[in-house]
Amino acid sequence: MKGHACVILLMCLSCVCATALQEKSAKDELLLEYLRQYLTELKRGDEPEAVPAQRGTEELTRDYKPPKEVDLQTLQELDADDETLVKYKEALLGSTADVLDEGGQNVLLKAMVFAPVDHEETVLDLTGDLSQFKHRPIVVKEGAEYKIKLIFRVQREIVSGLRYFEAHYRKGIRVNKANFMVGNYGPKTEEHIFQSPVDELPVGMMRRGVYIVKSKFTDDDKNIYLEWEWSFSVKRDWE
User: Fold this and answer.
1) Signal peptide span per the entry (predicted)?
2) How far is Cα 221 from Cα 233, in angstroms, rounded to an integer?
3) Which of 45, 105, 161, 216 could form a disulfide with 220 if both were Cys (CB 3.0 to 4.6 A apart)?
4) Are 200 and 75 in contact (CB under 8 A)?
5) Structure confidence by residue, pLDDT tens digits, 193-209
6) Is residue 191 within 8 Å of residue 153, measured between CB atoms?
7) ∠ CA 230-236-239, rounded to 5°
8) pTM score, whole prediction
C-alpha cells in the first residue's frame, strides 16, 4: 500500500507541475517528457510483472520514435530557480551524488535467472565467462511454465527503452523469438529486477531435445549492453 500511495502522490505532483509549466519554454517540455516516462516506470515497479512488447514479429514497434536523448545533469539543472520543479525532480530522480559507479557501460547486466513456476531457479552470472552457458544446458521438464528474470544496474544517465530480445533455435533452425519492453530507468546503486510474463516450454516427444537461445539486451538508442547464448534441454521430467 505504501508503494501505491507514493505513486499516487507522484502522479498528483506531475499534474500540478504540468499545469504550472504550460507556458514555459521548449526545454521544460523536454524535461517533462523525460520525467513522465520515469514516473511511468516507478508506477510499473508496483505491478507484478512486465508486459511483452511483442512476440514473433516487430510490426507493432517499427513506428516507435524514442525521445531525444538528454543527459541527467541537464535535466537536473533546468529551472534550478523553480522550487516546485526542483522538488518534483528530486522526488522522481532522487540524489545521484552517491550512486555507485563500477565503470564500464551505463547499464550493467548482472545476471539472468531461468525461473520455473514450480521448480528451483537457475541463475546465470553474466559478469564472467559467457561461453559456458551454451554448452551446459539447463534441464527442464516439457510443458513447464517459467519466467525470465534480468538483474541489472543503471549507473550514470537515465536510459530509455531498455529491451530484452531472445530467439530459440533447434538443430540450427529458429523455432521461436520474443521481444520484451523492460522500460526506462534512472541511476541507482541498487539493482533492478525485470520479470518476463509466464511462458511455457515445448511439450511432446518430437519437441524434446536441446534448444540454443540467443539473447540481447538493448535500448532505444541502439546501444547493445550484452549479447549471450545459453541453452536448455527439454525432457520428460526435471532429471
Assistant:
1) 1-18
2) 34
3) 161
4) no
5) 999 999 999 999 999 99
6) yes
7) 65
8) 0.69
